[in-house]
Amino acid sequence: MADPNTHEEAPLGWPGQLWLEGRTLVHLQQEQERPSHMPRGPAKRTGVGFLNPAMAPARTRSVLLLADALEHGWLVKPGRPIRALDALCATGVRIRRWRNEIPSDLQHRLRITGNDLDEFALSWAKTSHHCHPPKRDIVHEPEDDRHGQPSDAVFTNGLHFQRLDARMAMVDAAYQWVDLDPFGSPIQFLDAALQSLSRTGVLEVTATDTAALTGSSPSSQARRYQAKGLVDEYAHDDAVRLLLGTVATTAA
Ligand SMILES: C[S@@+](CC[C@H](N)C(=O)[O-])C[C@H]1O[C@@H](n2cnc3c(N)ncnc32)[C@H](O)[C@@H]1O
Questions:
Q1: Which atom of ligand 1 is nearest to the CA of 94?
Q2: Ligand 1 centroid to 77 CA: how many Å?
Q3: Which residues line ligand 1 (CB under 6 A)?
Q4: Per residue in 159-196, pLDDT tens?
Q5: Distance CA 99, CA 136 (A)
Q6: pLDDT in tens, 44-65
Q7: Backbone angles phi, psi at 118, to 5 degrees
Q8: Could you tell me the pLDDT band of residue 138, with boundaries at 50, 70 and 90?
Q9: What is residue 94's predicted lDDT score, i.e. its pLDDT?
């Protein structure tokens, strides 16, 4: 398998069209419609390498929260590094935003890994990072992995890319910060994500299987979440509670 950290050649369709998310330049695929000021998610199933502009506010919150954790030492002692994994990073927009937008005096404490199984999406991510690197060079000291062996992670301009099944990636290494943003339900990744988290850590979870979570698809809801919801005006509120409850019971 090609080393996902060596920038080889641009993926098919590069450079697409330029877009600014937060303070980070991203490349949308040419065929993707340009987002409006209040973008909506895709109406139909999208292909690999699609960047969902409707998720931009969620990524912005992730940037702000991680900066706060670093600044106020609520995950690790002040001065210690935080290892962060975007387990399903697709075109790498979130990890690039972490690297570009978190204040520069905190950057040296971040060890960021982006993982995805899809070669095309990873290539798009690496090419974006190569063409728009962070303003300051970030050099990491080598460190040991969770088994006490020297880690072979290679960080290029402050990001380490890998191409693994997300569950393997999470079982393989420990992180203080894990982001899970799958297509549809996160349920199949939850257990591995919780195993991967340090004793004190943050798990960011996105779920877009709204029909299952609200109960408008009762069989999916029962199968995935062992629940039976009432589809009334509180259905979306219930859906968030059901997701949080599922994470809590999986963790317990
Ligand atoms: C919704 S997208 C992620 C979007 C991304 N977080 C963002 O903010 O743009 C889901 C990604 O999961 C990847 N994926 C699906 N199953 C996977 C698996 N088992 N292991 C690793 N990646 C996987 C897909 O290739 C796809 O890029």
A1: 8
A2: 31
A3: 48, 51, 55, 59, 88-91, 93-94, 116-118, 121, 165-166, 181-183
A4: 999 999 999 999 999 999 999 999 999 999 999 999 99
A5: 10
A6: 656 777 889 889 999 999 999 9
A7: -90, 120
A8: confident
A9: 98
Only one residue has tokens 């203080």, namely: 176
Tell me how far the alpha carbon of residue 139 lies from the centroid of ligand 1, in angstroms. Answer: 27
And the tokens for 138?
Answer: 């970030």
How far apart CA 186 and CA 203 sit, in angstroms, is 12
- Continuous segment of H or E residues that includes residue 138: none
Contact predicate 3/122, CB 8 Å:
no
Q: Is the pTM of this model over 0.85?
A: yes
Mean pLDDT for the chain overall: 90
Q: What string of DSSP letters covers 171-185?
A: HHS-EEEEEE--SS-
Token reading at 251: 């963790």
State the Cα–Cα distance between residues 18 and 28, nearest whole angstrom: 6
* CB within 8 Å of 248: residues ≥ 6 apart: none
What pLDDT score was predicted for residue 1? 46
**Which atom of ligand 1 has the smallest separation from the CA of 121?**
27
Superfamily grouping for domain 17-32+46-207: Vaccinia Virus protein VP39 (3.40.50.150)
Q: What residue segments make up the domains of the chain, in order of their start?
A: 17-32+46-207, 209-252
At 137, the pLDDT band (50, 70, 90 cuts) reads: confident
* C-beta of residue 175 within 8 angstroms of C-beta of residue 203: no
With the CA atoms of 229, 230, 232 and 235 taken in that order, what torsion angle do they form, in degrees rounded to the nearest 10?
A: -10
How far lies 12's CA from each of 9, 16, 30, 62, in Å? 9, 9, 11, 30
